[in-house]
Amino acid sequence: MLRWFLGGREAQSSVERSGVLSIGEEQPRNCFTELQVLKGHFDIVRFLVQIDDFRCASAGDDGLVFVWNIETGERLQELRGHTQQITAIITFACEAAAHTGLITASSDRSVSLWDPDSGNRVQTVSDLQSSVKCLLGLERLCLWVSGGEELCVWSKDFQLRCLQQTHGDSGVTTLIELPKNHLAAAVDREIVIYRLTFSDDSDVSLTKIRCLSDHRDQIRALINVNDRLFASGSHAGELILWDAVDWNALKYQHILWEESQTGVQSESRLKALRPSEMSIQHLTTNGQLILAAVGSGLYVYDLQSQSVAAYRKAAHDSNVLHTMLLSDSELMSCSEDGSVRMWEIQDLPLPAEPASAGFFGNWTFGRSSKQSAPPSKKATDFPNTRKLELIGDLIGHSGAVQMFVGFGEDGLVTCSADHLLILWKNGERQSRLRSQALFQKLEENGGL
Amino acid sequence: MTVCGAAVSNAFPGRTTMIGSPDVVAFTKEDESSPDSSPLPEEFSVSLHPPADSNPWAKTSYAKFIKDFILISEFSEQVGPQPLLTIPDDPKVCGTFDLNYFSLRIMSVDYQASFVGHTPGSGYPRLSFVEDSRVVLGDSKEGAFAYVHHLTLYDLEARGFVRPFCMAYVTADEKKIMQQFQELSLRFSQASECLKAGNRRAFAKELQRKLQDLEYTHSVLQKEEGLQREAGPQSMYSAHAVEKANELANVEKSIYEHRDLLKQISSYHRRQRRDPYAVSCQKCVSECLSECEELLDKYAKLASPFSYSQKGLTGEGGDSGEGEEEGDKEEKPSYTPQLIKGKSAKCFDKRLKTLQELCDETFYEATVELLKETERSFRGDLCYLHIRRLDRAFRRKHKVVNFLFEEDLEDHESEDEAGRLRPFCAVNHSIDNCVQLIPPHIVLASEAVEISQPEHPGPAHVAFEASAAQELGTVESYLESSASDQTLETQESSEETKGSFSSDRSGVDQAEKQESSDPTPDQNTDMERESSSDDMETTAGEDEGENKEDQTPVSLLDVVSELEAFKEELVSEPPVPGDSTCCMAQEGFLYEASGPHAVSCRQHSELSQTLVVRREPHALLPLQGDYTVGSPSSGSPAAGLELPVEIFGDAVFQMSAEDGSDCTMSASTGSDRAASPIGFGGVATLREKKKGAQSTLRFVRQYPFSMQALWCLLSGRTLVVLGADEGRVRRLVAALTLFVPAAGKCGERVQAWLSCPFTLTDLQRWKLIGLQRVASPLGSSMLHSLSRYSRYISILDVDQKTLRCPPYRGRLLANIADHRTFIRRGSTYLLHIQSTLCRLAAKAFLLAFTHHLHVPVSSEEGPEDIEARRRGFLQEQLGLDEEDSQILLHLGRLITQQYLQPPSTVAAPAFSFNYTTSVLYKI
Fold this sequence. Notes:
The complex is a heterodimer of chains A (448) and B (923). Chain A is mainly beta and 448 residues long. Chain A has helices at 10-18, 264-267, 427-445, and strands at residues 32-38, 45-50, 55-60, 65-69, 75-79, 86-92, 101-106, 110-115, 120-125, 134-138, 143-147, 150-155, 160-165, 172-178, 182-187, 190-198, 204-212, 219-224, 229-234, 238-243, 249-256, 280-285, 289-294, 297-302, 307-312, 320-325, 330-335, 339-346, 359-363, 377-378, 386-395, 401-406, 412-416, 421-426. Chain B: It is found in: Cytoplasm.
């Protein structure tokens, strides 16, 4: 494609080699036809959180947190205070406190509460024993939990209510809330269940209830699926569904990208699978489907049929970092290769050509059966597998796209290692909105 | 000898009836009844069979000078009329033209300078406050016509304290003056005001010195008298003593008189100006005023005790001086006071002050600059000026879309609008200090009133007054006294109290005027004049002035309401009456030479103008074919305002228009056409643009896919010009810059030469990028970025002569990017491009501001319906296909964005694109 303007061969070959999957420039279903580059950060932007319908906050390795108006692309606030990279950011809206605040944790071993309206640092704790790696807001209880080498429970006015040491080198990497005041914390290969108890004098205590150690590798992702289920994914490609109440493993899915595949993937066949190729980087769910970012591929698990709904091993050129389910059939992923891709789960056209498939270890197991796992079955055993079709991609970032946040019709914000945020919008819709604004302004001004 | 008519232009059609003769009333009434459908001037209408002598360039041939110039002359009391300087200051310009003779002619039409002396009944000599007068005169023998602007400056040493001067714009084209009268008048008024402002300062300074001298003399005389008194009573009545006493009295009188003069000059600004163009910088005025008042204070205090501290006695007092005529006295330009000798110097011995000395140096320089600028701006023939003015007027009305392709409007406005709206300030006081005035509305003369009946001076005169009246319709409430030549202030004010705004009064005035003017010897019958405010007025004292002010509120209020009404009128009817005329006029101009005689006419013109018309033979080719097509369609008066639906007719029209105007330019501006402002801000920009257009033309001829490249730029797709040779890439980028919509004032959206890999931010910022092709690792990363962002960009490879961009199949751009085009000159092509782009911008404006194309008209309409309607508009009403529509949509988007958010907002602009496949074009 690019031969005509390339003077040499070196660039061309690299381009062609990396072209795992290309949709080309004709993308009629891609509605993001307008973009706005939001500049400000001077290091990798890692986190994005949605504050409300029109604002989001970005945080990165430069220790800065910016609040953006995604309608106009304006930078509304600059939250400066952290001296080192931000490690976690959540929105926190306690029922008592009417409006949303932002809690940020940083490597400088401090945690701060910000008011995104005024840009003020409302609360801050510093000189923590270790830096906080994850945050969890328990808005119902007006508490928030920080996880790191210690697990701490804080009140909304930043009073430490409870502290629990964790063991292991890595500390708590992910936290989720479970029903009945329970918490699940991912600590290395284990999921530790804690119970929050409130004594009469409103004292809070954490009790370690259970330690789930079914994963054989480090846990990378831990999400709530619904009231009854939560899911976890490990570095080795294990996806486990857990009962949220009695914490039993319901389903163990080991995603092993099999080499005996045809089609696109065969071109990029590799001799040996490196662990990162099947590491579950990110999990997301809409209650019916679980979408896992596995290495550079995508894997969709259907909860109803308890089987894989669709998958694509080489969805990106590099590791997928973040995913999102847009609807029951559409999803989006971003990757270290700098692109965001939009996918659709499509039915296979005809059974004549059986889409061959990946090779999944699939066990329904009891606790004891783990070691004597049955041989994995071919993916053709799942006749209802559908294919994941690329319907569009967003090219803009020159570094890994770390994360994105969707604002529905209003657009999509992506953040990247190239220090930029990009606001992707539906050009037609924006154009319509602008026209409406124009006529409104005309009316206000009483003419031109 | 020919008699010239005055330019007729009428800003307030409703008010002109109050002055002038019944003839004028009839004329203006007709105007009133149908202001919009005023008949097209004969010369602008397209006749099917134009007479053979309609060649617009044929007339200028018999003048003795080669181009227009500005002449400044003075009526010296010693040697009579003499030329002072010409602008441009080049003897070649005037050629064999006799400046001395012409100075005599132009100065002799100034009747005002004849007024000298005192107002009867007043004690002190009066400064005459004379408004400028404007006269148009012609000398058919010399082939010269001139707009003559008379002004008087104050000089303490001059007779009656006044020195008459005049500035004349001399041209061979009579119509040029007639039709540019208002603008000429405005420009020269500015210059005049500037000179006068400087003159008042200089005069005040002169007075100050004089007063110092006088007081010093006074004190010396007093001292002498005191000595005499001491000497004894017997000497008190000696002849010598009496002489001394007389002298003293004369000096005292002289002091009072000078003090009064100072008072008069400081009251200058308080006078109600009758001259509509007389606008002066308020800050200058107030500075001058405060200076004067300071002086007044100073001398008021010093004067009463006569306590000038005397350093020494210098000789015995001289003879008794002529205290009355102090203008002849000697004065040294120093601050050390001089003893004033009683003897007056001979009138012809003394050296008269030069213009530079009369006006402050700064002001003089500024005036000369202003006049130079004026000369520049009036270069070119009438047709050229007319089109340029149309262009400006058009752009002024399209402020919303000007940012797209007319990035220099701002400059232009400051040059042009400021000229109209704001007083010119020699010392560059900031504009906000100046009073905003309603500019005199400049309308193209419907037809110059031409009278060539020397045997009937009366009616001719009436007609001229009429035209003057019309021209002055802008501030007609000042005008009740304008027609009275030698009417004195008292008489006038008494008439004013009657509130006579009727036309009868004007008629009376008129009659008076005729009577008074007929026997005047200096009224040449063959030289007609047009004078805007030919009244003369001597300042009444303070109380008198107040009195006058008391009497005038009616008229003042009237002005205000009138001006407001005018404003409303402007707001309420966007198409200003002059407009349709303008558009028609344009076509009239362009098609003047159309018809069967067209070619022969042109050849004729070429023969007669071989020196100036330099035109490639190719330029003739499209003209021949086009006239037959163009002429009939241009018959419709609104043709210029309509959006053409038929695209080929459009193209043809453009083509002929371009070539026609090109000829005009080459014929009119001759060798220094590059320096003539053609509707762009800076000279350099224009030259660059022309060069750019030339290389665009080359590009268009060279590359068959130029149309696609232009389409990319116009539809908002970033174009990357890739090449190894910097000069080549830069040239091409400069050429293509013309097509970048909203490229910014300094071309912010264009990057001429980039030698590092670009990022998305760059794509968002730049719409046209010149990129260096390098064969190094850096080059490969650059190519990587090219391929990565290939969906957002089109790539024009200069070295391999390829273009990669989405396919374009539209017809819209075939007009400007035809590689078989007959246009050969960059300037022609530039105009061609500009008119096409202007047309596009107008369409885009329509698209952006048509309500129902964006907003549902009923509640059940969804976005799809609106979309369908918009598509229908683009395809059916504008006749554009898919890709051409994209251009308009993009331009419309830009207009909307520009309208909504001023460019200074914090957020980065949105970058729009679409996902389409690109194809590779090769030669």
